[in-house]
Specification:
OB fold (Dihydrolipoamide Acetyltransferase, E2P); 3 domains; five-stranded mixed β-barrel; five-stranded mixed barrel; 6 helices; 22% helix
């Protein structure tokens, strides 16, 4: 078959990769079938293409009344493994985290649904997933740019670190992995399963953007800042609170009432991420937060 014919009449595997790429872009879940558990990686098959759920927990629960006396003495990891073995061949709802057909890499997650209506009613774990979604939403609502939190390293792809913050997915982009000017192999700094301290840079509906560097540098940077100082800073996050700008190791908040007025109610209507602003430091609070004002704009 010629390349032109293959393009016009793709093979089933190509069609599946195209489907996976669509689901990756729109973030909607799709159904796979459990193949096996390898270590803490759950292997899931989607139309003949196998992907992995790393650090798999599957949200498996049980009551003590369901367990035999012997099972009650077993470690939780053993019970989870047994439950997973029993679930081989069953369908599971997943979200695509990475789909690279050239490298044949498919990474999946069960931290998957932003709309409860996306969960089929016949799934027995529907309520549990909804509860987990509610917990993640609450955590996302509580977390603010500039917060320091603990995260578990889930995986490393290229120079990016993927983490879990109490059930919420997060990424540490390459430029926030190491203080070195050049990109450093993250494997030299962290390992999957390791707990690390990170700073929240930005958040969307179901994912956090984080910095490993800033969590380490915060105290030093705060010590160098003084009220009245002016700095050029790039916008890190646009929220209902206002604009968070990056001071190179700390984030400063410019309150919303200083950046919008009248019929414009959200900073995103006037500003964009990575835009450069000139800001004046107003206060460094007891809880290590920086308050600033908008001095000038250099877009």
């Amino acid at each position: 078959m010629s390349e032109e014919q293959a393009r016009i009449n793709p093979q089933p595997e190509d069609e599946t990769w195209s489907l996976l790429e669509v689901h990756y872009k729109n973030g909607r879940p799709l159904v796979g079938r459990i193949v096996e558990l390898v270590g803490d990686h759950l292997i899931v098959d989607i139309n003949g293409i196998q992907g992995t759920i790393e650090d798999a927990t599957l949200g498996i629960t049980w009551s003590v009344a369901e367990l035999t006396d012997d099972e009650q003495q077993l470690p939780e990891e053993t019970l989870v493994s047994r439950r997973l073995d029993a679930l081989k061949g069953q369908e599971i709802l997943v979200r695509v985290l990475q789909a690279d057909r050239d490298l044949h890499i498919l990474t999946l997650s069960q931290q998957l649904v932003s709309n409860p209506d996306d969960i089929p009613e016949h799934y027995s774990w529907r309520q549990q997933l909804q509860d987990q979604m509610q917990q993640r939403r609450q955590l996302l609502n509580q977390l603010r740019p500039g917060d320091i939190c603990s995260a578990k390293v889930i995986s490393i792809y290229g120079h990016q670190i993927n983490v879990n913050v109490n059930g919420v997915s997060g990424i540490v982009p390459p430029q926030h992995v190491s203080e070195q000017q050049r990109l450093i192999d993250p494997w030299r700094i962290v390992q999957p399963g390791q707990m690390i301290e990170v700073m929240v840079l930005d958040k969307d509906n179901d994912c956090l953007t984080l910095s490993l560097i800033y969590a380490r540098q915060l105290d030093e940077v705060l010590g160098s800042l003084k009220p009245g100082d002016t700095h050029q800073a790039r916008i890190s996050s646009l929220t209902n609170e206002g604009i968070y700008v990056d001071l190179g190791g700390a984030l400063a908040l410019i309150p919303v009432d200083q950046v919008v007025s009248g019929y414009i109610t959200h900073p995103a209507d006037l500003y964009h991420r990575e835009q450069t602003l000139v800001v004046k430091i107003q206060e460094i609070t007891a809880d290590r937060r920086v308050m600033a004002s908008l001095s000038n704009v250099d877009s």
